[in-house]
Structure formats: C-alpha cells, structure tokens
Amino acid sequence: MKFAPLWLRAAGALLAFLAFLAGGCGPGAKVVPVSGVVKLDGKPLANALVVFQPVAIAGKTAGVGSSGSTDANGAYSLTMSDSDQRGAVVGKHSVAINLKVESDDRANPNRPPPKLLPKRYNSQTELQFEVKPGGNTDANFDLKSQ
Q1: For residues 31 and 131, is the Cβ–Cβ distance under 8 A?
Q2: What is the domain range of residue 109?
Q3: Nearest-5° angle of CA 88, CA 91, CA 96?
Q4: If you average pLDDT over every residue of the chain, what do you get?
Q5: Model confidence over 86-129: pLDDT tens digits?
Q6: Is position 13 within any domain?
Q7: DSSP letter at 111?
C-alpha cells in the first residue's frame, strides 16, 4: 500500500495534463454554426479570410478559433481551426479579416501591389462578435476602406 499514493498522484497529474490539452474546448465548450456577410464600402467583399478567436475569460483558456473564406457575394461560414467541425465556440470573439493574396500576385513584379484592408480589421483589429448559444447567421461586418 506504500505505492498507492504515488499511483494516485500520477493519475491526477495525467488527468490535469489531459484537461490542459483540452483547453477551452472541453466538455463545457459548445460549438454552434456561425455565418454572415462581409462588405467593404457597402459592396460584397470576395476572397477574404474571416478569423474568429475566442476571448479569454478569467480562469479559462481562450479556446480554439474558427475561420472561413468569403465567396463572390461576401458570404462566409466558419469552421473550427482544429477540425472540420462547422461553427465557433459560444462566447465573445476577436475578429480579424484579411484579403487573400494569390501566390502569383507576389511573384509578378508587374502587377500592382495587392489591395489591403486597414489594420483596424486585422493586425490591430477592433472587430468583436458575440457568438450566441443558438448559433448566428448574422455575423455581418461592413468595413470601410478609409
């Protein structure tokens, strides 16, 4: 019986490690469908990457983010970054939107530089969205080029 406490401690450490790996997507993290439309100056923004990252709450990890690409109509739907599961974790998210750059755009010196969105929508994002427990089809963003 001398080894029982050691075994129990090892089992507890293993459970703590597994809980750490699960992060914000443990049993309490609910994933729901999220979709919307992105516009730039009132017009649909095609070929953009929309990234939702959960905001950490005191005592909890932020969780896994989600992303989606806009189509010709500016419409997108999110997929979890760590799987093929559609949607996003319920809660407050920081949102970043970037235009996709085609690989041949970088290689061709005769092309004009790719169009960029203001930093307040990506690297210094001011965008936030609250994902509701029932899901959202209204995660819309109307961006301004200036």
Answers
A1: no
A2: 27-143
A3: 60
A4: 80
A5: 999 999 999 999 998 765 555 666 666 567 899 999 999 999 99
A6: no
A7: S
Residue 5 lies in a domain: no
pLDDT of residue 62: 74
CB under 8 A, 24+ apart: contacts of 53-60: 53/93, 53/94, 53/95, 53/96, 54/24, 54/88, 54/89, 54/91, 54/92, 54/93, 55/91, 55/92, 55/93, 55/94, 55/128, 57/91, 57/92, 60/24
Count of domains for the chain: 1
What CATH number does residue 126 fall under?
2.60.40.10
Q: Report yes or no: 29 and 132 within 8 Å, Cβ to Cβ.
A: no
The reported pTM is 0.74
Chain length of the chain: 146
